[in-house]
Amino acid sequence: MSALPNTPPNARAEADGTAPVPVPTRLLVHALVREDGTVDSGELYAVAGLLGMTDQQVRLCVKRLVAEGRFTHEGRGRKALLRAVADATGSITPNVAYVRHAYRQDHGLAAWDGVWHLFAFAIPESSRTSRDTLRDTLRHLGAAPVQSGLYVSANPIEELVEAQARHLDVAHAVTFLTSTDLRVGGVDDPPALAAALWPLDDIAARHDRLAGLAQACLDRLARPERPTGPEQLAMAIQLAAAFTHAMEPDPLLPPELLPRPWPGTHARRLTAACWTALAEAGAHAPAGTPVPRLFVQYEDLLASVPEHLT
């Protein structure tokens, strides 16, 4: 059996010093749920082995998922069949609109208007849970803290922030404003502000790791000896985990605020190419076998992006 393009979790680091993105066992089980809601145990153990997981890890994870009522278990060992009961999506697919916007930015179709969007709030300790949730929402939407209770975004996210504030019943304590001449300390140059407010080096490193994995997968798929079905599934799961790892903390700053070239653009292009190659290879889903939902989710995701952008 051919080696995978990167080292399994908990193994040695990559040649460039970066560690592969870990794939939790629970995520692996969810990623292998097929369109009919089942997971083939033989396939599960085979892919888990390629990802560096032990049979014991898989057995314990399956036992927990069954105990939680998320799956039922039919049969024994590698011939068993897991059947999803509840909340088995285990989605590692980013939001469709978010990814579509990223590809538009990559091609210069979402130019920045020079407006900074600011959000200020003063929520008392008695509503600490709501305050923390609002703060998490702002960070999830790509806003960065300027100082205590003040966040800034380069994208117009007011509608989403206001909806969350109303849901948390703290809308009365939130102030919305915009500025075209933001200055933090003595810094007012937009790219310099972006570099100071967001961890661009860390985000770039995540995209570099994604690009390296996608390129390695493309190289492996181009060989005359095609990877087996389990190997293709392992590639897909690693790629999905790395894509999520790179995209989740990315605030999708306008290109005007980012270093050039920006690694995210290259990584997303390679990711789209890799998913296309995996879909065309097709060994992950032999004829008559239900396709893992993960493939359907990513095919739908990339189908939502105009072809000339990928």
From TrEMBL:
Transcriptional repressor PaaX-like C-terminal domain boundaries: 198-283
Matching entries from Pfam families are given as: PaaX_C, PaaX_M
InterPro entries per record? PaaX-like_central, PaaX_C, PaaX_trns_reg, WH-like_DNA-bd_sf
Superkingdom assignment: Bacteria
Gene3D superfamilies documented for this protein: 1.20.58.1460, 3.30.70.2650, Winged helix-like DNA-binding domain superfamily/Winged helix DNA-binding domain (1.10.10.10)
| UniProt domain Transcriptional repressor PaaX-like central Cas2-like: residue ranges | 110-181
- Signal peptide location in the record? none
* Annotated protein name in UniProt: PaaX family transcriptional regulator C-terminal domain-containing protein
